[in-house]
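Hi all, long-time lurker, first post. I run a small reading group and we've been trying to get comfortable going from sequence to structure in the token notation. Rather than ask abstract questions, I figured I'd post a concrete chain and ask someone more experienced to write out its structure so we can walk through it together at our next meeting. Sequence below, copied exactly:
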Amino acid sequence: GLGIGTAGTKASTSASSNQLAVVEVDIEVPKFVAFRQITETRGREKPKGCVVVNIPETTTKLAEFVTNNFLLPHPVVVNAEKFKALFVSALPPPATNGPEGAEGQGQPSAYAKRFRTSGSPLYILAQTSEDERSIAVSVHCNSMDLAAEIVQELARYFNLDEMRADVDFPEELEYFEGILDQVTQFNSSRNKLGADMAEDSQRVKALVVRAEDCRLMNDMVGMRKAYTELHAVTNQLTGGYNIRAANHQGLLAALKEGNQMIQRAANLRVGRAKSVVISESRAALKQKNMQALLRILTSK
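-- Answer (accepted) --
Happy to help. Here is the structure in token form:
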């Protein structure tokens, strides 16, 4: 939670005094205060993603975690075997005004606009294991970022150094596949543009030599023709460079988003499991093994 100092004023006890006393009060704000509790799911949007983690605790302890991190006008549903807490986001939709820039400082990212919507659901459910030594906690929501925040807060609250996860965010994985397709297309275009620019560069060198030969032989017609062609090739080379620069920027943006998706998936784990997801995902990405990459993101 966050400690917020609030200041209030009150008049002094003396009727003739013109001074005021300032009173400060610290208020403990739960970490997930931006989520409103609901009591039923009928008629509401169903969460599109889910992450499941196992915690060596009881449903009662999980209820304490939720009580400390959310505002609960109604008691949560809990018994020795099951736990259920239902919320919806009370955050406004991502702002779209202002200059483009980092998320939260202008134009939101495509990910934020797609997966961080106002009123989106957040369900936290749990089931006690057969041996009653742990609970399987499932976090249902639309955003992998939000699920990761819950998982990391669970790890901090219960002092867990290691936590694996089963992940199922089909829409986000589909979005990730689209990002990987963009990387493939940008790389293909970069190779083709590079080859075209190398060919144009060779033509420029040849035309410069031809124009100089024509000048030495006093062939003004041939020289003008060579320089005219050189001007056209130079403009083509400049245009190709601009296209390649734009392609490079697009490739960097796609790679950055791809790495952020890997980091989001890794944040659904704790400890060594998190490190393994990052290292193996980057290795699979380098080898262009998309099937292995998606398998690593969902089941490590």
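A couple of things your group might point at:
The helical segments are 59-69, 110-115, 144-157, 170-216, 220-266, 272-286, 290-299.
The longest strand covers residues 2-11.
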